[in-house]
Amino acid sequence: MVIILIKTQFIHLVKYIYTISTPPIGYTRVSKNIYRNNNVLPVFYGTSNIINLNDYKTLEYPNNISAFLSGVITPDEKTTKDIDFAIEKFPLEEELIYTKRVTIKNKDNKLVIKSKDNGYINLKVNNLNKGDILIIKLKLLNQEKCSQTSPDQRITINNVSNVLTCNKTFYENNNKTFHYVISSNNKIDLLHIVFNKGIYKIGNIETYKLNYNSLNKVKENQSKFIPKSKNIDNKIEGNINMKEDGYFVTSIPFDKGFKINVDNKERKPIKINKAFLGFKLEKGKHNISIEYIAPYQKAGLILSIIGLGGIIILLIHDKIKSK
Question: Residue 14: CA atoms inside 13 Å, Cβ hemisphere, count?
Fold first, then answer.
């Protein structure tokens, strides 16, 4: 399963991926380099597992990640679901087996790594089981100055990359905390760590694990949304049978232009999961309609018509005047 991690948040789970390397856990091949995972969160679903936003803000890494797997985060409702902390801190047991084009020093409990182009380290991992997903968090304590000999600092672990742009570049990203989610359909027994050319001072290394089987529980309490076969680009319609009072959850980014109807009655859109569109929904069967209307679309159309009318009047005026 691909788990997209931005800073400390799961964003979504991805059903289809393209890769020329070994796919992550849970993916099966459907055609050349295309893989599918059927055990992912749907685009639309219902849930009664509610976590209040203020409760969420008290959580530290990686428990704030578990919150996204436990339920929907909302600004107003009380928490109804105890968060299942499926991710646990994990002391990784590893041993260095090979290096190439890198030198490694341990100074004041910090790693100092000097790398030539695509220098790498191979670490043997001894204490992960099949199905374990490894999460790595580390802090980059230095930032290279921009020059032809000192490019961006990039660390890639088993084909997952994090980048800190060089100092004072136009698009400086200040990404000094690197996160990695490493998984495989087989047991993870090797970490292949590749470095761009440069110096890397690394500290605050933390490792966590999550077993893939625990992710199967995420969908157990969901209510399934069944879309109608004919949906136009800016409108989604379908039916849902909510098991309990709760929220309708989507992976659509929240915006003011959405119009929601439940059983032909308008419903207020709510920002859920800190960034996405959702709304309250009661237990039972419902017909759902979600339509996007661009803000100020009508006003823009009226102004365009007025402007066009003004141009026509000027053209007629100029034509009459020329006679």
Answer: 15
What does the DSSP 8-state code read for residue 200? E
Domains and CATH numbers, the chain: 42-85+222-292 (no CATH), 94-213 (2.60.120)
DSSP string, 284-312: EEEEEEEEE--TTHHHHHHHHHHHHHHHH
pLDDT, tens digit, 9 for 90 and up, residues 178-195 = 999 998 888 999 999 999
CA–CA distance, 240 with 166 (Å, rounded to integer): 49
Q: Which of 215-224's residues contact partners 24+ apart within 8 Å by CB, and which partners?
A: 215/1, 215/39, 215/69, 215/86, 216/39, 217/84, 218/41, 218/69, 219/39, 219/41, 221/47, 221/48, 221/49, 222/42, 222/45, 222/46, 222/47, 223/45, 223/46, 223/47, 224/42, 224/45, 224/46
- For residue 230, how many other CB atoms are within 10 A of its CB? 7
pLDDT tens digits for 206-216? 999 988 887 77
What CA–CA distance (Å, rounded) separates 125 from 123?
Answer: 6
Per-residue pLDDT of 54-108, as tens digits, reads: 999 998 888 888 888 778 999 988 888 777 767 889 899 999 999 999 999 998 8
Asked whether the bond before 24 is cis by omega within 30 degrees of 0, the reply is: no
Lookup: tokens for 225:
């949304």
Q: Which two tokens stand for residue 147?
A: 């020059």
Model-level pTM? 0.77
